[in-house]
What we know:
alpha+beta, five-stranded antiparallel beta sheet, membrane, metal-binding, MCTP_C, C2_domain_sf
Amino acid sequence: MLDSCKLKSACNLPFIYNKKINTAGTSNADVPLPDPGMYQLDITLRRGQSLAARDRGGTSDPYVKFKIGRKEVFRSKIIHKNLNPVWEEKACILVEHLREPLYIKVFDYDFGLQDDFMGSAFLDLTQLELNRPTDVTLTLKDPHYPDHDLGIILLSVVLTPKEGEHRDATMLMRKSWKRSSKFQTQSLRLSDAHRKSHLWRGIVSITLIEGRDLKAMDSNGLSDPYVKFRLGHQKYKSKIMPKTLNPQWREQFDFHLYEERGGIIDITAWDKDAGKRDDFIGRCQVDLSALSREQTHKLELQLEEGEGRLVLLVTLTASATVSISDLSVSSLEDQKEREEILKRYSPLRIFHNLKDVGFLQVKVIRAEGLMVADVTGKSDPFCVVELNNDRLLTHTVYKNLNPEWNKVFTFNIKDIHSVLEVTVYDEDRDRSADFLGKVAIPLLSIQNGEQKAYVLKNKQLTGPTKGVIYLEIDVIFNAVKASLRTLIPKEQKYIEEENRLSKQLLLRNFIRMKRCVMVLVNAAYYVNSCLDWDSPPRSLAAFVLFLFVVWNFELYMIPLVLLLLLTWNYFLIISGKDNRQHDTVVEDMLEDEEEEDDKDDKDSEKKGFINKIYAIQEVCISVQNILDEVASFGERIKNTFNWTVPFLSWLAIIALCVFTVILYFIPLRYIVLVWGINKFTKKLRSPYAIDNNELLDFLSRVPSDVQVVQYQELKPDPSHSPCKRKKNNLG
């Protein structure tokens, strides 16, 4: 037992600190501290006991923040409706100065509102024994109300010195949890010894089928349920099903399985409430270690702490080929291996594993002229390479603005319309990594085997930032498989940024939708002018055309007209009369948008007024998203006919040709009969099939005007040309 008065005087805040430890050991306070030194602090947040109630129901939704100095180094998950929460979460923290205590703060999470303070305590790191596990009991206090009993927090800590060769040991800094599902970069270094921990061992495919007899949370005796899934840092959220206790979701999600033995998927069901915190319906778990692989399991899970059941289909499959290697061990450099890959994606193997569309190899060679991120005038850059939910990292090159990585990454392509994202970060030991630049490259725009210098862009991908990165990329894919995959739903990213309210974004989406609507309005004005005979020659021509089309109209003429429009635009493009133009309004709006992502999260007790009027904020976000969806839909149709993505335009031409022939030779009643029989028997043939619309799935692959701007490749400075650099080196 340590003297609490001594600790109080050291930290100027009251707390009680118990250590269950062998008293024969030596503490840090008794030995001279190496300065400068580096220490590794391993913390296990065990549980809380008798915490303060902050909600109307007499419970709380507690989570814990850890700080060293003014920097937040860890944030725990939220335990809902529990005053005796059990976390059992681990954090690994690098500590430079033991004289700065570890500050522990507990909060009650309030969705959309200010989180309630539940108490705090200090842990004096100089009182810990080196290399010895220590059980710690911290009594929570409120500095403003020191007499209030706020409960205790139980920890286990181990402090280990890291000096000399250990000073540069590979560490995974646990980034504090954000309430958004936005990907937060973790400060880490990838070495050969730790590379395996960042490669997944398999894929867990979950199909959320339905809910049965869920708990009624609204006054009308119904609920608006949705479901959250979590496996480690990977999170998914289902769509909201309004006014039902027996929702039918039919949604599919894929998780990466990093551990050989499996893992636990946490599942929570919620009732959506506009204007206040969502109601908790219940929770359940799936133990993946108990499920056999390469087999689909139908699970009916009873919700704990609530009512009802969830029906799921869970499938564990072996991992696709994902790897990191040095430049000298490239897959495509080996002629035998290259032939094997080409054979795997040859036209003859169309129906072999339809999900395996292609193979991607990315050589991350080097970067030049990066942004300075450290006070020393240098940076510690590393690269993150992402393809949908597949994410791999390079090692860190320290104190260098012109790093050379020379790493080769290989991925299996599940959707040829995916976008390869390469992001450069600066590693920081004591906080999250700093963003240095990013490029987004659609797979269909890649020129195989060509080493290119890509100008790094800002976070919004709208303008250049400092530096270029040299990449050499190869894409091999089966065109037929890629075309078939275009007609099924896109893979959802589990690290997608959560929608936020932005005045600039709202205005931009309004302008985009207005432009789409104005196309229809102008077309209506044009037709009306023909009917009003504003221009007699034009009205006469329109009248003759109307009589001819109506008299000779057949159903097959609809796809035929669309086919002619696509063909007309194609010949305009190849003749040099390209009528495609980027939306300058969108481009300007994107460049003016504030980079709110760069701002550090403020403490919960200092939240702004906008979070207190959550109902208005939610309505504004809904309007913002609807405007974006409507505008994107119109832009995607336009970009299909404008040949923005030639692969998709050719696919549209093939489909329209097929529809024209079918409608010409087959009577309409037979087509409707086949369509109706398919729709009526679909649930009988495949009860758990996920409904989809092939046309909407196709359009989801066509980029909107915003994405066209984001994926646009910036022209590098001629001085950064690889050839010129080679000549300079020779000179």
